[in-house]
Input
Amino acid sequence: EPPAGKDQGEIVIEVRNLTKRYGDVLAVDSMTFTVQPGIVTGFLGPNGAGKSTTMRMILGLDRPTSGEYWLDGQEMSKLSADRRALVRNQKLGFVFQSFNLLPRTSALENVAMPLSYTAEHLSEREARSRAEVMLRLVGLGDRMDHEPSQLSGGQQQRVAIARALINRPSVLFADEPTGNLDSRTSEEVLTMFRELNEGSGITIILVTHDPNVALHAERVIRIHDGVIVDGGLPPIAQPPEMRDRPGTEAKGAS
Ligand code: ADP
Output
């Protein structure tokens, strides 16, 4: 059954004993945490800690070896790949370190792109107008017809953020969003996340290896070697056979 609190809309994401094994590597080791709506949550850990693997599972891009997670009350690991893709397109937005914009394509067209992947059918005019609103929101109202190569790194990331927001997701995932930006531009982008959060109340998950980036989060979940070391919840009791976790020794002490 869905975790307590769902009906009140108090929890956007709840993860229980989420585990991902790649052969002998336990990339994510029984993580249990919640992400409350409306705040910026940092997901902090060194390279190889399991951050991307966790995010890929929550985004429905990768299947857990075991464990469960709920998104807005829906148990995701039980859905088919098609259903997960639909939920992802409707409820989740994501930006990455590499901006992943289409080259030789205007900022406006890049931002409007996800609209064609949803069930909601907008006319070309409506799509354009919604993309314009998003680009103005990220301060690029005067760059709509520019192609990625004509924009700075910070501007490209802002286009990616506008694209991530176009379907009005409940959660925005940002995986090392400032990894390719200089420190001044990084601060601008991180400030923008905070402003978006304060303005619209959108839930933001800020994934990073950099403690300075995590300072922009209201709450930080710290992970190491696939395990939450701070900011999570105690693991939920599970059957003894699931506690047998060969492979953890090989990863070294933290
Ligand atoms: P982070 O995002 O924190 O840098 P990752 O989630 O990328 O960490 O990786 C966690 C662990 O899982 C690492 O030991 C990594 O080598 C391993 N890993 C990640 N993806 C794969 C994969 N597709 N195949 C095998 N091992 C993987």
Summary: The CA atoms of residues 86 and 118 lie 7 Å apart.
